[in-house]
Design brief:
elongated; alpha+beta; 7 helices; 4 strands; four-stranded antiparallel β-sheet; about 160 residues
């Protein structure tokens, strides 16, 4: 019979698995199986402790919306989360070179970039718009003085409930 402590550790593991910070890491191979075994009650306490030790240090990735972002005044990225197809719900990050070429970023680097953008999504989007002269969401040229100052187009700002003044 499981003790209260075992139950608490199982609940913690469920929360860690549900936050999905493990996607794109080596835990992607075993986390879904661990969740299934935990639900079935066949995951022993030693494995629960091992899984918690490997999932707890992973940073929680904030939900970064689709768009273009700039970090450190020079690193540019495009974030895409398809809603259909094989990659539906999976956030992809592309590094944008000075010439506009895009390269897929994977693994730990992808997680780190999403974490950096996630600390202040709006500031990273505005920085992209102001530095490139293009809206971070629709990529249209910013030609209105307010759009240039705000860092995005009026329509995209209103669509996202952001101020455009």
């Amino acid at each position: 019979m499981p003790t209260a402590t075992d139950q608490d550790r199982g609940d913690l593991l469920r929360r860690l698995i549900n936050r999905r910070a493990w996607q794109g890491t080596p835990a992607q191979e075993w986390a879904p199986r661990a969740a299934a075994k935990l639900s079935a009650g066949t995951l022993d306490p030693e494995h629960i402790e091992w899984a918690i030790a490997h999932l707890e240090p992973l940073p929680v990735l904030r939900n970064v919306p689709e768009g273009r972002y700039m970090l450190d005044g020079r690193r540019r990225y495009r974030v895409v989360t398809p809603t259909k197809g094989r990659w539906a719900g999976r956030t992809s990050v592309y590094a944008i070179s000075a010439k506009g070429a895009e390269t897929l970023v994977t693994g730990e680097q992808r997680r780190k970039i999403l974490g950096e953008i996630g600390t202040d999504v709006l500031a990273a989007a505005i920085r992209y718009g102001q530095e490139t002269g293009r809206c971070p969401y629709c990529k249209q040229a910013l030609d209105h003085p307010t759009s240039i100052r705000v860092g995005m187009g009026e329509r995209c700002a209103r669509k996202r409930g952001l101020p455009w003044k």
